[in-house]
């Protein structure tokens, strides 16, 4: 059975993957259909959501023509049995990592756990790739090379979940700020899913053939870790992958899997903008050139780029996540710092945003009398292009996942999102590698019921203080990871 968005909602995703039209109305339509939940329970009916522009007939044809799959129901049953027997250990690992989170490029303890676990299983393990990255290789005869990535870093967020294993960690960053640290995006689950899958693959070597490459990646949050691993010689220790897989937690019911072929996530840039000024006493602003005022104007003017410089049917997001300036009430500082984040689905849109931000910065600085050699600087930090899944590979995953989780927990053709990743940067040197990036639900029934009561579709927000991974999703995600890998390597 196929959920049909209907003609009214058919054109809300452009050919470049952007969500346009009226997203709120589209979300409302999906909510009325209860495609995610019904009173906090699992999906009540058909899970297949058409990507806009698709026809119901095409979706039905896609369902009917899904490849038969190499993972039999018998093999799925063995995966379930093996991981269920291992679930207590896996949940303990998850809780331990959750209580001991580490920021990007600081994942010394986490990478140590990954390296030790995989080494004990017989993988060839190399550490320190991209500072704290881990690469583990298991060769098991002839066959394709499959790379699976789990990101390891946490967020600078104060956890407020109330769980007894909540993080209390605080660290001092390189910029001198002391910040709370917590896994508010689920990377602790990603690591544990990979470790659970690795044990199953080791125990079932007679069932598959080929090479499995596991990557513990640092610094996904600053969009820097994948490039760091590639630049630091990832492919001196790992073979070129034929297939690349990654999973990410999603604030939807535990065990659900969401995926789509084609455009999946937006590209992103992290930019530090520094305004220079002339500091002085707060009582005599006329004697200064105030970088706080310059920064404040820039923040508001950036938004006009989206509303007035980018075509309405394109998707663009400009966010200023931090505005840092001065220390005292009565002192005008001589610099201010804006931490800017961009989201886009095309390189053309990206360039318009970057050029526009530079023009706004320089125009404001000149207006306030700054000389040409003191104009604002822009430091380009982490960058990742949009992430697109291989259409055929996603179709190939449908049958084994259907066997694993059932029809009612499989969400196909989900819309692209403006969230971003750098996972696919790991395979940027090999553009013919086929990519499959999937979401796995991690919200328990209580969280979903609370969201439903408030009229919300999602249980909590990523990077928010209440992001809580249901421990029951740990074995569930490990099973999804294992079945996806086996689909590509099973004999």
Automatic annotation (TrEMBL):
Q: Any keyword Cell inner membrane?
A: no
Indicate the segments annotated as coiled coil, or none if absent.
Answer: none
InterPro entries linked: Amidohydrolase, Bact_exopeptidase_dim_dom, Peptidase_M20, Peptidase_M20_dimer, TAT_signal
Q: Where is the signal peptide?
A: none
Check the record and name the Gene3D superfamilies matching this protein: 3.30.70.360, Zn peptidases (3.40.630.10)
Keywords in UniProt for this one? Answer: Hydrolase
- Residue limits of the Peptidase M20 dimerisation domain? 269-362
Superkingdom of the source?
Answer: Bacteria
Give the Pfam families listed for this entry.
M20_dimer, Peptidase_M20
NCBIfam families cross-referenced by the UniProt entry: amidohydrolases
Q: What protein name is recorded for this chain?
A: Amidohydrolase
Species for this entry = Mesorhizobium vachelliae
């Amino acid at each position: 059975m196929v959920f049909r968005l209907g003609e009214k909602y058919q054109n809300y995703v452009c050919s470049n993957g952007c969500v346009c039209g009226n997203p709120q109305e589209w979300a409302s339509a999906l909510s009325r259909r209860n495609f995610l939940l019904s009173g906090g329970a699992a999906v009540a009916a058909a899970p297949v959501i058409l990507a806009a522009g698709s026809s119901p007939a095409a979706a039905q044809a896609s369902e009917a023509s899904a490849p038969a799959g190499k993972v039999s129901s018998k093999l799925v049953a063995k995966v379930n049995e093996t991981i269920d027997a291992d679930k207590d250990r896996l949940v303990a690992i998850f809780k331990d990592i959750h209580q001991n989170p580490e920021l990007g490029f600081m994942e010394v303890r986490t990478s140590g756990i990954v390296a030790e676990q995989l080494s004990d299983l017989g993988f060839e393990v190399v550490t320190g790739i991209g500072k704290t990255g881990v690469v583990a290789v298991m060769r098991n005869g002839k066959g394709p090379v499959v790379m699976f990535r789990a990101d390891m870093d946490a967020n600078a967020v104060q956890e407020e979940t109330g769980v007894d294993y909540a993080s209390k960690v605080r660290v001092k960053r390189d910029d001198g700020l002391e910040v709370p640290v917590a896994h508010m995006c689920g990377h602790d689950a990603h690591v544990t899913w990979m470790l659970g899958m690795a044990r199953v693959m080791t125990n079932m070597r007679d069932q598959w053939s080929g090479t499995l490459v596991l990557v513990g990646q640092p610094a996904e949050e600053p969009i820097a870790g994948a490039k760091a691993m590639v630049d630091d010689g990832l492919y001196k220790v790992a073979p070129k992958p034929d297939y690349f897989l990654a999973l990410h937690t999603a604030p939807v019911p535990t065990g659900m899997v969401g995926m789509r072929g084609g455009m999946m996530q937006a590209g992103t840039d992290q930019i530090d903008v520094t305004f220079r000024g002339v500091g002085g006493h707060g009582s005599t602003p006329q004697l200064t050139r105030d970088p706080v005022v310059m920064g404040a104007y820039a923040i508001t003017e950036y938004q006009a780029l989206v509303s007035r410089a980018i075509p309405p049917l394109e998707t663009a997001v400009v966010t200023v996540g931090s505005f840092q300036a001065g220390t005292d009430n009565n002192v005008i500082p001589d610099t201010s710092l804006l931490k800017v984040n961009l989201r886009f689905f095309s390189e053309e849109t990206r360039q318009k945003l970057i050029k526009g931000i530079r023009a706004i910065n320089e125009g404001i600085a000149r207006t306030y009398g700054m000389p040409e050699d003191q104009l604002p600087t822009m430091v380009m930090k982490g960058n990742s292009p949009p992430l697109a899944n291989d259409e055929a590979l996603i179709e190939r995953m449908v049958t084994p996942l259907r066997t694993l989780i059932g029809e009612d927990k499989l969400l196909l053709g989900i819309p692209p999102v403006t969230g971003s990743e750098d996972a696919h940067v790991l395979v940027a040197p090999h553009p013919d590698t086929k990519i499959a990036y999937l979401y796995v639900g991690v919200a328990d029934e209580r969280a979903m019921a609370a969201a439903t009561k408030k009229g919300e579709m999602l249980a909590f927000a990523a990077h928010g203080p209440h992001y809580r991974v249901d421990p029951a999703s740990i074995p569930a995600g490990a099973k999804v990871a294992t079945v996806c890998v086996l689909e590509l390597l099973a004999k």
